[in-house]
Amino acid sequence: MTTVADAHADSPAREAVGPATGSVAAELRAAGCAEATADPTVLAAYSSDGSLFRLRPQAVAFPRSDAEVAAALQTARRLGVGLVCRGAGTSLAGNAVGTGIILDFSRHLNRILELLPAERAVWVEPGVVHAQLQAAAKPHGLRFGPDPSTNSRCTIGGMIGNNACGPRAMGYGRTVDNIEALDVMLADGTVVRLDGQDDARHFPRLHALVARSLEPIRTEVGTFSRQVSGYGLDWLLPEHGFDLRRAFAGSEGTWGIVLRARMRLVAEPAHLATAVLGYPDMAAAADDVPALRAFPVTACEGLERRMLDRLIEAKGRAAVPDMPEGGGWMVIELAGDSAEELQASARDLVAASHAQDSMVFGGGDPTAAAIWKIRADGAGLVSRTPDGRDAHAGWEDSAVPPEHLGDYIRALMELLDRHGLWALPYGHFGDGCLHMRVDFPLDEDGGRQAMRDFMFDAARLVARFGGSVSGEHGDGRARGELLPRMFSPAVIELFAQVKALFDPRDTLNPGIIVAPDALDEDIRTAQVRPGDMPAGKTGLAFALAGDGGDFATAVHRCTGVGKCRADSAAGGGVMCPSYQATRNEVDSTRGRARVLQEMVRGEDVQRDWRAPEVHEALDLCLSCKACGSECPTGTDMATYKAEVLYQAYRGRLRPADHYLLGWLPVLSRAAAPLAPLVNLVGRVPALAAVAKRAGRIDGRRAIPAFTRRTFTRWFRHAGAAPAGRERRRQREVVLFADSWSNFFAPRVLAAAVAVLRDAGVDVRVLPSTECCGLSLISTGQLDGAKRLLGSAVEALDATDAAGEAVPIIGVEPSCTAVLREDAVALLGTDAARRVAERTKTLAEYLLEIGYRPQDLTGVRAVVQPHCHQSAVMGFAADEELLDRAGVERTVLGGCCGLAGNFGVVEGHYEVSEAVGELALLPAVRAAAPDTVVLADGYSCRTQLHDLSDRRGVHLAELLAWGLEAP
Question: Is the pLDDT of residue 485 over 70?
């Protein structure tokens, strides 16, 4: 360890230089930070984290080395600006925002440096994602113990800063319990290794300060496991060996900068079991916690019925598995070396409880996994009240000793009632930690004062129960002002003295814990009001029904939980493909939402639909719709992008690709009869080059060939069943001949006819050529989209004049999704709602009627679900149908990367290809030559055609193999 002797304690006070924003980034680059920017779009994206707070930084830097971190720190000290370290930015307390320099460690300093299985330890850089570490440790039978609900994207550095815990802290400890050594850069640039050896000798002033303060530390700090608030000075007591590495946990970046960490790993349990206990309410469940802690419990979580009701409302009844009877539940994980003994322990636990109902599941049970997922998504699920008002973080992380939790919940609910506020509690009941979001009326006059009044009353309440204002998220900006309600003046002064020893200029994360900013300052949602984003004379094109028809309210759905930064493809998800390809915060759903929020605010980003920062942020959005279903808060960026493009270009000249690609379905009606002549454009290189340049199409993309015979023409002349044959069938459907299948892939529709007739179903096709307007929606040409979609809806609605709800079958997933979802949002008519209710995928309908497909045992497939299908209809029906057929398959997560017109347009090719390389293209290259590549989306098959040597097959074609042609 380098000897420090607190030499930096006598440094002069911070100078208030107040440089211009652009100059801070320039100073950083001049000092050696290669990636430092003051780009307004980037600053907007980093103006918030997962909290309520909005502070626009002066610069954002992405260090690659210790030297660059030192350069940034030196620059911050010289210029007199604050420096905030950031990982995934999932902080709920405002720990990762500031008005100075943001250092984002997640982009480059994200390596696992050394995995030491024999020592059950690992050296990591601070930007390593928790899930990345778990994946590396798993082959060795090891894991990192603590696992916050944000484990798919949170970083180890951030976990150390907050002393993060998560549900399994009962079994594996908090982050602080798993630190073996830290390499830390102190405020003067000195780098020290903290490993629990001789810390007192190397930090004599700190040691002397603690020695003079033993009584208040022993009586007030570290009184129970979830007392995360303040500084962990209890680790500096003699009985803990003056362990500074542990004390650093939870200091929230105010003492120094973690450069590397050696973390303890633990063995994965041999067997797991889950017990779900039902109680009349949450408080009754909490009363049972002390009796259950005697069992081999690794996690004990509380859920309330209202959370499940919210999930059912958002995603349907199938999203929630069967649960024990009750209004509140505890979900308990037990671990052990013997499956039999574990099951016996689970039964004994149930018997010892006072639950009114229970269920017990073995390890790996999908029902248990579904229940745990509900808990993991809790923060997003409770971010709105049942009547649509925003519920906010702030008092989302209090904790009390577990034996007091039931009484605390009752008292807290009474306090909410007295303040006229709503909240839905859940959390880590086994440790006494309670999460909730409160509907502070921050968009109203007096809302900030209402928040202050409640927060101070709640702080007094939690202190009365011997608790902590923070149980794992840290104090940050949300709760620093409350610490005097929890600690004596002597301890508050002690915190200030320790901070002054480490950071006398207050450079490191200022306004946190010591000399905190007011908890209601810089509240993002208090700075906007519904209606702040005017939509012109004709208003918004989309109804935004869940947001009161207000764009400002809609974009503030994003609370910053950051699930869009997770590698969702690894788990079968899609969100957010552009971020996965670029790893730029701006290209995440959250980053885009932050820029849109800045536009609504109208201060640093102009309140104008044409603001360049907004269009830069939206440019790489693939409009995959995944965020609308996978984001816990339902942030629907595809809709917001379409609305922005509509408002920005309404009555103005558009980019050429909007006209060519947006209106391609309509142009196809004229081009199809001339297919041989029109297709020459794609076959003659010189003509193709001219056409691509004119339409802003990337030169590396192939121009698709029009079919010589459209499906609708074939069906009229040859595809329709012989007279009388249709009437003998008992079922009837309308097959929607979407533009992409009709003009470019009629074989798919013909195969669907064959399969439906094999199932004994009459097939009807609209006599007119209709289009859902998808390409116009994605390019924001929403007036035109409404006209096309309105015509299609009217024609489809007319096919059920008798009101028999004749099913409408779609084969192109994106067009089917438009009929199921966008039609109602854009048209808002009864006809659109009727059509939406009737519209089904081919797989959904075939399952509904009990169809038994031909035996395809021995067929192996790589399956690429279409993004819009995953988001709107889901893929479960297709999976079940493939099961019935005996198809062995690998179902991929992620997006193909083409995403309609996105990957075709100039400037998007590289990102489109990078998205394809996340899952689809590697899987196809690794597949055996006889493996089927199943891809229902026309864009997915086009991406395969352009970037691989494989041909994509539609589910209808696969099911039609061997059937008699219609």
Answer: yes
